[in-house]
Design a protein that fits this description.
26% strand, single chain, 4-stranded antiparallel sheet
């Protein structure tokens, strides 16, 4: 393992393979949670499902006990105008809600991290469009990455797609990140900016790309629990995330069940997984 560009962690192929195991566990957990979202379920019940699945799959929840104050749960469960870091609890989901679920797992010391936003029953068309734009911008960001490129090539691709689809708020204070032996490590991966800047995209670098997009303003506030980030204007927000790496043959999305192969093919981008 080598380090360059101010603490950026470069992994061996064997270490990336272990990150794939962590990523698959995260992806499988999120699909289980997607199927469990319904009116009447509590965010705390979703958290219990996630923790059980992670631990029974041989992993450890990345989030539980993280930072200060220690995060008390295994997932972040952010509802409607809550965009990230929502703490699961007694809140019952109701028809018309959207919930952003962020999940992380550690396998043999290596992390995977991903997020989805799920509708509860019927939601307004504009909120569905927000979710679709956010998820597509994530994939456009990954699809822009090439060995020898720069981190902000991803940032620029995310922003360009979102701006092309409407007047959405792109969060600037919260970004994607490097990932490996720690859940959050250099470099930051903003969701906006000019291309061609930041550390070089090299083999062995793993990044978590996570656009956080709001239907209104990008201004946020931190709730009294010191974790939950909500939109200041109360507008709905969506959050999608994947962990990916680049190999000599293309992009490999470590938290996607198929490695990202089908979506990358749709976007005309070479698949780099195995």
């Amino acid at each position: 393992m080598g380090f360059r560009d101010r603490g950026v962690e470069i992994k061996t192929p064997e270490q990336i393979a272990t990150m794939r195991a962590a990523g698959l566990l995260v992806g499988q957990t999120l699909e289980l949670l997607r199927a469990s979202v319904r009116a009447g379920v509590t965010t705390g019940e979703l958290d219990a499902i996630a923790e059980d699945n992670i631990r029974s799959g041989g992993g450890v929840p990345s989030f539980k006990g993280y930072s200060t104050p220690p995060f008390p749960a295994s997932i972040c469960a952010s509802v409607n105008d809550q965009v990230v870091h929502g703490i699961p609890g007694a809140r019952e989901l109701v028809d018309g809600d959207i919930i952003s679920i962020d999940c992380g797992a550690i396998v043999d010391g290596w992390h995977g991290d991903a997020a989805i936003t799920v509708a509860v029953g019927s939601i307004p068309d504009e909120v569905q469009e927000l979710m679709d734009v956010t998820e597509e911008s994530l994939w456009r960001g990954i699809a822009s990455a090439r060995l020898g490129g720069r981190v902000t090539d991803i940032s620029h691709a995310v922003e360009s797609y979102v701006r092309s689809r409407g007047n959405y708020g792109i969060l600037e204070d919260y970004t994607g990140h490097g990932i490996g032996t720690q859940m959050h490590q250099p470099p930051n991966v903003p969701n906006f900016g000019r291309p061609g800047r930041g550390p070089k995209l090299v083999r062995g670098l793993a990044l978590a790309v996570e656009p956080m997009i709001a239907l209104g303003s990008a201004e946020t506030l931190l709730e009294d629990d010191e974790w939950t980030v909500s939109m200041a204007d109360g507008a709905p927000a969506a959050h999608f995330e994947h962990t990916f790496t680049l190999t000599p043959t293309g992009a490999w999305v470590l938290t996607a069940l198929d490695g990202g192969e089908s979506k990358l093919a749709e976007l005309g981008v070479p698949f780099g997984g195995s």
